[in-house]
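User: Could you go from structure to sequence for me? I need the amino acid at each position, not a summary. Structure tokens:
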């Protein structure tokens, strides 16, 4: 998940490095820049989404610094991970810039109740964090590992399916909510006979469904059926890819996961594409990536556990928690399931939730 500061190790003590931080927004981009030939931080406002303008600005600054110092400067750049994705990182890296994508949740912020926040202050904070990280202070912030275009594209099916499932739930709740306003509580939009039943619905006070409401529900059903068709297409492609991986002569991570009882095509796809497509420095980094590390609170005489951090990849964390429950159900005689039952016993609630998180962490390390 994290880069090592060694990426900029050769420049950590150099005075010939241009540091650049970009504060990205929809309206404009603000560039905070520290050059070796200037004592102050420079600010430049650029059009939003214009990567070429960033490259032109860097070319001008490099030419200026080289003319004044006689040394060709190195460029180190960063911006926060977010809506703009990784295309800018790839563009900068392709032009010889040492580009980094910063985890925004890792930045320290002022804890005062009324904290001043502007694009200028945010850009300067990013720049200071980048310079400190480049000097060899890894705890000042965390850099994410940008995926390759192929890795990013391979994650699309599982993420698209999750989006379609959310849309399906929203539409079903919307239709059932409209029916509830008329005293109808037994209409199921996901049944195959949803259209004939819609024409037969009777309100709680014995009237046929109002015509305008009936047409609105019919339009919602059109939308729902479109989502169901798209969901079926995505799952068909996923199952075909999983079947090919399971039968392949050369073992892959996806195929290996499919041979484990309790892991189906969806869980195997999520784990293979979201977690096991990268390398981690240690077990701690693996757990940190999916947010399963503990977050203790110990200060003076006060000491308590706050649960897991819930940082990192939420999709992978959800899949691992689901896998833990399925493991206990489908492999009751396994060592991990026996360990879970011995720890939980007859307890319920919070103790059971803590144990299932611990089991998910063990399963992650075992995979």
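Assistant: Here is the amino acid at each position, in order:
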């Amino acid at each position: 998940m994290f880069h090592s500061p060694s990426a900029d190790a050769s420049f950590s003590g150099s005075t010939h490095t241009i540091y650049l931080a970009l504060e990205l927004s929809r309206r404009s981009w603000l560039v905070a820049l520290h050059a070796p030939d200037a004592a102050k931080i420079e600010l430049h406002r650029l059009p939003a989404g214009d990567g070429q303008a960033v490259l032109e600005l860097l070319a001008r600054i490099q030419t200026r610094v080289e003319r004044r110092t006689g040394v060709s400067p190195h460029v180190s750049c960063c911006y926060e991970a977010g809506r703009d994705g990784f295309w800018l990182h790839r563009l900068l890296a392709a032009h010889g810039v040492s580009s980094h994508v910063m985890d925004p949740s890792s930045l320290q912020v002022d804890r005062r109740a009324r904290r001043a926040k502007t694009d200028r202050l945010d850009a300067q904070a990013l720049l200071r964090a980048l310079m400190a990280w480049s000097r060899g202070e890894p705890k000042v912030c965390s850099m994410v590992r940008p995926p390759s275009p192929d890795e990013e594209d391979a994650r699309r099916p599982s993420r698209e399916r999750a989006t379609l499932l959310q849309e399906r739930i929203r539409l079903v709740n919307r239709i059932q909510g409209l029916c509830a306003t008329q005293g109808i509580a037994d209409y199921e939009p996901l049944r195959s006979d949803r259209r004939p039943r819609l024409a037969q619905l009777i309100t709680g006070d014995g009237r046929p469904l109002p015509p305008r409401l009936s047409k609105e529900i019919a339009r919602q059903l059109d939308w729902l059926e479109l989502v169901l068709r798209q969901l079926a297409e995505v799952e068909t492609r996923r199952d075909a890819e999983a079947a090919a991986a399971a039968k392949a002569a050369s073992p892959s991570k996806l195929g290996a996961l499919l041979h484990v009882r309790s892991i189906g095509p969806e869980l195997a796809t999520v784990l293979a594409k979201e977690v096991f497509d990268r390398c981690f420095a240690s077990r701690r980094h693996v757990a940190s990536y999916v947010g399963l590390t503990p977050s203790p609170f110990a200060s003076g005489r006060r000491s308590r556990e706050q649960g897991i951090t819930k940082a990192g990849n939420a999709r992978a964390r959800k899949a691992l928690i689901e896998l833990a429950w399925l493991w206990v159900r489908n492999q009751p005689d396994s060592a991990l399931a026996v360990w879970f039952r011995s720890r939980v016993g007859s307890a319920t609630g919070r103790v059971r939730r803590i144990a299932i998180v611990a089991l998910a962490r063990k399963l992650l390390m075992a995979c």
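One structural detail worth keeping in mind: Residues 1-14 have pLDDT under 50 and may be disordered.
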